[in-house]
């Protein structure tokens, strides 16, 4: 198989983890005889520094021409500390999601047995958990009109949904549920929000087309609670953009660490694959980051982007083995025991590739 | 001390739990020689059934004339299943918050040692946690303009904040932090939302007036994760209305159960005290609900509403003792052992009063 892959390392720990996601793809190509060619482009703070823009035209052009994108992370402390800055790294990520029509963000909560202990949640609560989030990614308060009054004392963001936006992601989520445990939980705040009432109405309609899937509707506040109280009860979770952002980060504790979760954004064309962790400027460049989420992003690219199931499985199994052998990065090492061999980013990356 | 207290039982399990919050207040009055008089009023589905309105004028009038309000819960399955209904129970709660100017919702995460095991989170992660949430309660996407297009295919809610709304709750939160561990974490999504950028800017300004308090700003997605990863790191948490709704429900797992958490809404005049749990129609009328959150709401009324610290402490200590003696309601009983004496709502209520 021949594929053009665009690598966008981004900011903070992005470059150091993406190195290993890319290395994993190269290794897979070598083993299975595929031909993956790579190009690289700038986004976020890294792009602002060079071009003044968080998403340079050149990056968008390359993205459109690629078969899949491997992305690192975005964001920088400078902007977080100064809310008045006009040009911001995250605008690059939001724009590329919109421009490429990446309306469905899939976040599987993959639980490695070996990491059951790394979570703050009790192992007996976690064991057997297997959740697939479908987060809507190109609508909601993320993309609605923003205003700031002349005197700067009033600010607003429009939380808005169109029926077709809910429909298309609902179909994807239901289709996935049919392949899994046939349960779908749609999360909203329909007791307060009009956009959530549209969301709920629409999901109720779509549900009729999938009578084999059991549908539940849950308010976001309750969902945030149930997710840690009884994660096993969830199968496919369908959410709007903002609620999905919150719930999936929360769910990362189920997997033991944010450093273990990958996501796939798909929609109209090219797929976009990235760790769910952020740029973590505080540990950037210190060889402390966990490269496994980037390698798992590569696995998602193989599976969801290219339909290469066996190749993806090899990566996941290798990570599983490395964990079984007692190797850990800092974020997933239980400090209270010395059963584990704690590795830096590069050592862990090398080990998996080998 | 003479006080007029309005009891609004509301919907679902509201009436059966509020009975015990009220009984606790009566008992305290008897013991300490206070004169509490009680009146009752309708709100939510209960009010719609009788008057057609979720917040009848009479209820609002009584509320204005009372010194404090003890509330139960709101909501009904009928409305949750039919998003197209125009008159909805929750409108009553939102309206009374707005009308009484209850802009600050205080949600203490009170951890009873005895319940450490009832949580899905590991006891060693929880032990020592003591968080006080300040949730803004009369602004945000809850109260911004709602629209639905003619063809019903587009719906929106305006997420909006004014600087003075952020300032007044920030002051309250900082003042509380000064009396506690002098740490304040403000939660927002300033990397995406303009209203969050106003929020962050304003908190940064107010922070300068409280140099003895250490301020941290955190994105909501990260906060949802950190809260269960390392709850001990939080002291006072300051949030907007929607983010606070989500985080405090999530935090209820820290306290072992939603059935254990009370909240105080304060602002311009009369205080409003309620459990954070919802109406839980599925268990309503079955003597399964936990009355402790309503009794703890009564304790918050005594402490925050009337400044009666000793009286409040007696209620909290009594609950602590009842738990130490091995009594539990269903929600907090560990089913895997028979160390506990599991009681119904009324038995638990009676026991605490006695
Ligand atoms: C960086 C930020 C804009 C982004 C989001 O909120 O979507 C991130 O948190 C994510 O979840 O991908
Ligand atoms: C019932 C609902 C409107 C309410 C809210 O969202 O504020 C509830 O969840 C709460 O937290 O008090």
From TrEMBL, chains A, B:
Pathway annotation from the record: Amino-acid biosynthesis; L-leucine biosynthesis; L-leucine from 3-methyl-2-oxobutanoate: step 3/4
Alphabetized UniProt keyword annotations: Amino-acid biosynthesis, Branched-chain amino acid biosynthesis, Cytoplasm, Leucine biosynthesis, Magnesium, Manganese, Metal-binding, NAD, Oxidoreductase
Main localization (coarse): cytoplasm
Reactions the enzyme catalyzes: (2R,3S)-3-isopropylmalate + NAD(+) = 4-methyl-2-oxopentanoate + CO2 + NADH
Enzyme Commission code(s) on record: 1.1.1.85
A Pfam family matched in the record: Iso_dh
Positions that bind Mg(2+): 221, 245, 249
Binding site for substrate: 97, 107, 135, 221
Domain Isopropylmalate dehydrogenase-like: 4-352
Residues at the site labelled Important for catalysis: 142, 189
Entry note: cofactor: Binds 1 Mg(2+) or Mn(2+) ion per subunit.
PROSITE patterns: IDH_IMDH
Localization: Cytoplasm
Residue ranges the record marks as coiled coil: none
Cofactors, names only: Mn(2+); Mg(2+)
NCBIfam families: leuB
Subunit record text: Homodimer.
Physiological role: Catalyzes the oxidation of 3-carboxy-2-hydroxy-4-methylpentanoate (3-isopropylmalate) to 3-carboxy-4-methyl-2-oxopentanoate. The product decarboxylates to 4-methyl-2 oxopentanoate.
Family: Belongs to the isocitrate and isopropylmalate dehydrogenases family. LeuB type 1 subfamily.
This protein's name: 3-isopropylmalate dehydrogenase
